[in-house]
Structure formats: C-alpha cells, structure tokens
Design goal:
- The chain is of the alpha+beta class and about 240 residues long.
- It has 2 domains: about 130 residues, no CATH class; about 100 residues, Transferase(Phosphotransferase) domain 1 (Transferase(Phosphotransferase), domain 1), CATH 1.10.510.
- It contains 5 helices and 13 strands.
- Helix 3 crosses helix 5.
- The structure holds adenosine-5'-diphosphate and magnesium ion (MG).
- Magnesium ion binds next to loops.
Length: about 240
C-alpha cells in the first residue's frame, strides 16, 4: 500500500494524501498505513480461522490486541476482483463508513468493539482498497462456539441485544452467527460493513424482520449440534428476549 500520508491532526482524526485516507482514534497514536499490512506485523499477526471470509487477522502487540480486516467481496464479483471496489469518493469508502458507524454505536452505549483506525487507498483506474483495525474483544468467540450455547439465558440475551440495536435504527444487513460474539456473559455485534441507520419512526420496519430471518437461517446452518426441537425452543427464547 502507498504510504504517502500527510498528517492533518487539526481534524484530529484524518490523514489525507491525494490517493489515501487514514482515519484513526486519537487515543491510538502512531497508526500508519503499514498497520493495515499483515506482513508488517510478522509473527504478531495470526489469520482468524473462526467465522468470516478469510481477510482478517488477530494482531497482538504489547500495547494493543487488535483485529485487522481487509474488505473482500463475496459472490460473483469476487471472481472479477476480490478486494477492489469502485471508487466513488473517500467519504463513501467502506472502511471509513464502518469506522464512523462503530463510533456512533459506541456513543449510543451499544456493545461493539472500539474502532482503532480505517484506511482506504485509491488504486489505478476506478478502484480502491480498504481495511479497518478494531480492538479485539478478549476471550470472545462466535456465539455457536460458546460453552453456553444450550443455555436459554444466552439466547434471550442475544435477542435483547439485537433489540437494542434495532431501537437505535441499526439495520445489520449481515446478522449471522459469526457476527455475534460472546465474551464471558457479554454479547457483542460486529462486522458493520454495508450496515445502515434507518430513519426512526419509519412505518416500514420489515428490515428488522429481515435481520432476524437472516440470523434464523444462519442458526439452522451453524447450530446443527443442537437437536431440531431444542433449537426451536432456544430460538423462541431469543425472540422472547427481543420482545421484552
Ligand atoms: N473485535 C473482535 N474481537 C474478537 N474477534 C473478532 C473481532 N472482530 C472480528 N473477530 C473475529 O473475526 C471474524 C471475522 O471478522 P468480521 O468482522 O466478521 O469479518 P468478515 O466476516 O467480513 O470476514 C469474526 O467472525 C470473529 O471470529
Ligand atoms: Mg463477519
């Protein structure tokens, strides 16, 4: 990646050159474009094996425990270009959008990881690449891997947490089991790429049902170790937590 960054600390958060933007939490000094390259970290970067599509690394330094994620396409377009997106302005870069969304969600008191930094670099032609660094939630695992998977209380809590996000208008367009992390008894949502805030009070709330339907399909796939009947009961506990 190009590292021609011009620091503009006046804006506190943004560093810009003609072809790259870096947005960083001011409490994390020293962030540079190199931080978004796994090989820069040598042995300190380990590919994430649970959940996700293979573009994420855990990074452990003395100062931080982080997750680095490169934005990768799925589906048909991945064959064409796995990591490049059409550039329509840095304002709309996916990494920057997710960084700002994480900050907003945390300000609202919702359980999401802290955003450390976001990067976008314009490539030749119409394309750009993007990456984000977030704080690693310690001892967290995707919810199907939780030792409490068979506990009604966990499913109810997941429902309650999802409802909290919905109450703030957050439409999580990829609400699957791997985007729900459990650490001790705390439930977090992650992976807000392409998510959006819906206008409060909007009559059409079908997006909320779509989120739940998406999760339901994921539960059917990821929680096969639970017998069908029990899985259905647990799902009802999730809905109960959502409706409380
Ligand atoms: N903040 C975090 N703390 C701990 N683990 C994380 C965190 N963010 C991501 N992970 C792990 O990395 C996986 C992939 O990350 P995610 O943000 O969902 O990207 P994607 O699904 O696009 O690959 C998650 O399923 C989870 O296992
Ligand atoms: Mg994910």
């Amino acid at each position: 990646m190009d590292d021609h960054l011009l620091k503009t600390r006046a804006h506190n958060l943004t560093s810009i050159s003609h072809n790259a933007v870096l947005l960083a939490d001011p409490d994390c000094p020293g962030v540079s474009a190199n931080w978004f390259e796994p090989h820069y970290w040598r042995g300190k970067a380990t590919p994430v094996t649970a959940g996700g599509r293979g573009g994420a690394w855990f990074i452990t330094t003395e100062a931080n425990e982080m997750v680095l994620r490169h934005y990768l396409r799925g589906g048909m377009m991945a064959r064409f270009s796995e990591r490049r997106y059409v550039f329509t302005g840095f304002q709309r870069a996916r990494s920057l959008a997710e960084f700002k969304m994480l900050q907003t969600l945390r300000e609202k008191g919702l359980p999401v990881p802290r955003a450390i930094a976001a990067y976008a670099v314009k490539c030749r032609g119409l394309w750009y690449e993007a990456a984000i660094l977030v704080e690693r939630i310690s001892a967290a695992e995707p919810f199907p891997e939780s030792p409490n998977l068979d506990q009604a209380a966990l499913w109810q809590e997941i429902g309650r947490i999802i409802r909290g996000f919905h109450n703030e208008g957050l439409d999580h367009v990829d609400l699957n089991c791997d985007n729900i992390l459990v650490a001790q008894d705390q439930v977090y949502l992650i992976d807000f790429d392409r998510c959006r805030f819906r206008i409060e009070g909007s009559v059409d709330a079908s997006w909320k049902q779509s989120n739940l339907d998406r999760l339901r399909r994921s539960v059917e796939k990821r929680c096969v170790c639970i017998p069908d009947k029990r899985r259905e009961q647990l799902w009802q506990h999730l809905l109960h937590g959502y409706c409380l």
